[in-house]
Amino acid sequence: MLCPDCHRSAPGGTPCPACGRIVPDQESMSGQGSRYFVVLVALSLAMLVLLLLATTLGGPGPLPVLRRLAASGWIWLYLAIFFIPIGIGIYYWLMLREEEVIVTDEGISRRSHWGNESLRWDEVCAFNRQPILFRQTRLGRISGLSRLFLRGARKLDLPPVCYELVGPADTNGLPRVMRFEPGTIEEMPWLLQLIEEHVGPPVDV
Ligand SMILES: [Zn+2]
Questions:
Q1: Which residue has the higher pLDDT, 182 or 180?
Q2: What CA–CA distance (Å, rounded) separates 177 from 183?
């Protein structure tokens, strides 16, 4: 495992050789579903504010406008514009809610909407990195929104890339692949460092 402070390698549960802090024996990372929800709700609120401004500036004020909209049936369009992003946010939150990746000195496991997977480090045959388009990911184009979550100078992968841990073949003769797509996991850079500690840096394919 790695010390969370100085990123030095040490067995989980033992003191870090540099700072003496006990290195955790497991690290878990969750999905980014709540981030999508927050961004989409903010989008809805921004549209509501724009709508209110548009109807109050130079107009008769929001209440008469609302009454006129309700009478004409246009209100449904406005309600749809307001609620659709919130609905999409809830959908992605539900999809990523179960997502959790756990790293230990023995291996890596993932719980997710798409099934549970695990690999021991000694089973990993390859760690690959490849470019991917947001629309090719399981989340689809919406994962492009994850760009909005990156703060400050944190490194941005351009084009977006996905990471794959390739394990031994399963009973059908196909290799077991654990795939990390952009915009799914919180703290992806930290997850990548923890993986690299055990299997080395990713190879571009
Ligand atoms: Zn340390």
A1: 180
A2: 18
